[in-house]
Design a protein that fits this description.
This protein is mostly helical and 502 residues long. It has helices at 2-37, 44-62, 65-74, 81-98, 102-125, 128-149, 155-163, 169-192, 208-222, 257-276, 291-307, 310-323, 332-339, 357-372, 381-393, 419-439, 443-447, 452-461, 471-479, 486-499; strands spanning 231-233, 239-242, 245-250. The protein contains 20 helices and three strands.
């Protein structure tokens, strides 16, 4: 009975303590956002020290003996479902963190701050050897990190669990293998098709400043909350923030306005999720997103099921024509086809179409595993990367910049992250099917410019739960079914079968 009488005090004390941990995590996020968006290039040495200090203090608070005592106190307490979820999430985070020494956390933080400018320089100069030494250090540190957490487990599995703790690596592998097995033949059929999709945007130049205005317009159209957000440019588009301040970034190519538009819609999906989390629960796991598979499902749902839909182009093309008179003759159908063209020679993941995208993920997944398991030397990454691109995508990068240096993730120490992109795309289709089963087809609403119907449903069925449920439980709560790739594969077979007359 002692536990039961002490537990309310223990719960409140744990929450107060965790609120400070959340605040430090948010501060680290702003430091990272600033480094990627606004910080002058010479600021790296100080920023490395700042980020290292914040991450070390956060780690020390998370691993404090008091946290262990409070969690012990609450082990047999009579808690509500919400309280039990909070304790479950904090316990998991505490137990993982407690196994990792503070000096290793500081080393990782400092090394990732050093890695970012090295990656950027290597990419600009098209020279992987500039980035290789710091990547080697990061691989060693991540191996050490994984060993501390679970010396008996597969190191890559430990790292993957940082981003997706409740869907195991076997599930990720099964999904990726199924996508590879079913999408490669579908892509081959498309290559053999006699159909050529329209592209009214090809062959023209699109002013970058005007594209930025258009990006703001599409965010307005989708219902982005400017009082709690902003848009900037970054070498690699991303979104970050809190339910009070969720920012998006994008990038522009004068020849590819649709890419920037879809990238902006993708990052809007992330920000809409973040802003849809319950603000009253900020500082607790109930006010936090449910890891990266679910986060990616939100961005891919908006990008693929809304931004690549015929209804979206009927709604938004008139606005695009006011900004770019050179497409005044384009039809919504032609714009829809341009947004869904399958590219036989695309090397860049963030510019990839809905199908070949997943082969980009498979390449990264396989290389990451080989690096962590010691089966691939860092120096050999460019060649291994290029070989896999040739095998899976039928193209071979001619430069490191368009090959293994295109993504920012490794410079951030984010190893084990990439599978969640494909898992999220798969989940997006499942959630979208549940949405339509609940409220009916959304095309007519989107055609009329009513995007709130999508955002409100997602907020009610996904966002508002925060991290109350594990990933499998949240999927079942939102869709009524276990996680499955069936909806995604049905979606792409139907859509691309019609587009390419298969």
């Amino acid at each position: 009975m002692a536990h039961a009488t002490q537990s309310p005090d223990a719960y409140d004390a744990l929450l107060d303590h965790y609120e400070t941990i959340t605040g430090l995590g948010g501060a680290a996020g702003i430091l990272s956002w600033d480094q990627e968006v606004m910080m002058p290039e010479g600021g790296t040495p100080a920023r490395s020290t700042q980020k290292s200090a914040v991450s070390t203090v956060r780690h020390d608070l998370l691993t404090d003996q008091q946290v262990a005592d409070w969690l012990d106190d609450l082990a047999d307490a009579d808690l509500t479902d919400e309280q039990a979820a909070v304790v479950r999430e904090i316990r998991r985070e505490h137990e993982r963190a407690a196994r990792v020494p503070s000096d290793l956390i500081a080393d990782l933080s400092e090394k990732t701050s050093e890695a970012h400018p090295k990656w950027k320089q290597a990419r600009e100069e098209d020279d992987f050897s500039i980035f290789a030494p710091v990547l080697e250090d990061l691989i060693d540190l991540k191996r050490e990190y994984a060993t501390h957490i679970d010396p008996d487990a597969d190191a890559y599995e430990v790292l993957f669990a940082d981003y997706e703790p409740y869907l195991d690596l076997d599930t990720a592998e099964r999904v990726l293998e199924r996508l590879r097995d079913e999408l490669v033949p579908l892509i081959a059929d498309i290559r053999d098709s006699d159909v050529t999709l329209a592209n009214p945007f090809a062959g023209s130049q699109f002013d970058v400043d005007t594209q930025e205005d258009l990006a703001r317009d599409v965010l307005d159209t989708l219902g982005y909350d400017w009082e709690h957000g902003r848009i900037d440019t970054a070498p690699h588009p991303f979104s970050s923030g809190t339910p009070f301040d969720a920012r998006v970034t994008t990038r522009f190519d004068p020849e590819k306005p649709v890419d920037a538009l879809l990238s902006t819609i993708h990052e809007f999906g992330h920000a809409r999720y973040t802003l849809g989390l319950p603000r009253a629960e900020y500082g607790t796991p109930l006010g936090e997103s449910r890891d990266l598979t679910v986060h990616e499902s939100q961005s891919r749902l908006w990008e693929n099921h809304i931004g690549r839909s015929p209804a979206f182009w009927e709604a938004f093309l008139p606005e695009m024509k006011t900004q770019f008179p050179q497409v005044e003759d384009a039809t919504p159908r032609a714009a829809f086809e341009a947004a869904n063209e399958i590219f036989e020679d695309n090397l860049i993941r963030v510019e990839a179409d809905e199908l070949t995208y997943h082969m980009h993920i498979v390449v990264r997944f396989e290389i990451e595993r080989e690096l962590i398991e010691g089966d691939l030397d860092v120096a050999d990454v460019p060649e291994a990367w290029n070989d896999k691109y040739e095998e899976y995508l039928g193209v071979r990068p001619e430069t490191d910049a368009e090959g293994c240096l295109q993504d920012i993730h490794w410079s951030q120490g984010s190893i084990g992250y990439f599978p969640t992109y494909s898992l999220g795309s798969v989940l997006a289709a499942q959630i979208f099917a549940a949405l339509e089963a609940d409220i009916g087809p959304v095309d007519e609403r989107v055609r009329e410019g009513d995007f709130d119907v999508v955002g409100d449903w997602l907020e009610s069925n996904v966002h508002q739960h925060g991290a109350r449920y594990t990933t499998p439980d949240l999927v079942r709560e939102a869709t009524g079914e276990a996680f499955t790739a069936d909806y995604f594969l049905d979606h792409v077979h139907e859509k691309y079968g019609e587009l390419y007359d298969l």
